């Protein structure tokens, strides 16, 4: 995936931070932030103007235009207003502008699935949230990471509080904006779908990319052993830079003619008794998937 954050910032989140046990603390069923000030409540009830990047027609990047003075409505129940400091750039964003992403809203729309910024206002609590919904406690001035259903390409957004998380201490806004979509994608693939467990061997395709690096980190966090595939020798170095203690014999530079043998050898090096993998996280498809 393409990112807005520089490569150095993408290396900041570690496998520890991907683990749910290490995630920023949040409380379940908190219906309203306990530190919301009267000023925050007043700001939440007002309309403000912002700058957005809007797609009027899909098919080319030229369809994306900057619009100043767009009105942002007051926050609704369960929402916070965030002054955006950094925005994540993903392939899905590019595809949505080009009209190649099936989940894209009708034009005109504002792309963007994640951002990071500072809380400006806090709305009233949402009494209709499902039981068990995790809602973090935040205050005006706090930095938060936000995942959206489009709309992040803006200087300010209203977002459901339960879709926000406090920015971990020491992280930049750029790092926060580059974390959620890739991290959640990898976590959903490996834990929710793949049910990766301790002791398993996991094949992670495109391991030097954003989701791939998170995938490697998640495997290591749960005690699984990853086998990584990359497209070139230079990307082997990128993987080892992030995970210097990873066995180089478990990293494959893909070769279509002998890929089966490559996987068998790397899986054996990873500890698989029969040279196979229990779970495959695939971002390549095509011949390698078959």
Please give the structural blueprint.
Elements: H1 7-10, H2 15-18, E1 27-28, H3 38-44, E2 48-55, E3 64-72, E4 79-87, H4 91-98, E5 114-122, E6 134-135, E7 143-147, E8 156-160, E9 164-166, H5 173-177, H6 180-193, E10 201-204, H7 210-222, E11 225-230, H8 233-242, E12 251-253, H9 259-269, E13 279-281
Parallel strand pairs: 10-11, 10-13, 11-12
Antiparallel strand pairs: 1-6, 2-3, 4-5, 4-8, 5-7, 7-9
Describe the structure.
It contains 9 helices and 13 strands. It has 290 residues and is an alpha/beta fold. It starts with 6 loop residues before the first helix and ends in a 9-residue tail after the last strand.
Please supply descriptive tags for the structure shown above.
four-stranded parallel beta sheet, single chain, five-stranded antiparallel beta sheet, alpha/beta, 290 residues, 23% strand, 13 strands
Structural class: alpha/beta
Q: Provide the succession of SSEs.
A: HHEHEEEHEEEEEHHEHEHEHE
Task: Give the beta-strand count.
Answer: 13
**Can you summarize the main beta sheet?**
5 strands, antiparallel
The poorly predicted ranges are 1-36
**N-C termini distance:** 23 Å
Using only CA atoms, what is the Rg? 21 Å
Strand content: 15-25%
* Helix content percent band: 25-40%
What general outline do the C-alpha atoms trace? elongated
Number of helices: 9
Strands in their spatial order, largest beta sheet:
8-4-5-7-9
Average pLDDT confidence is 87
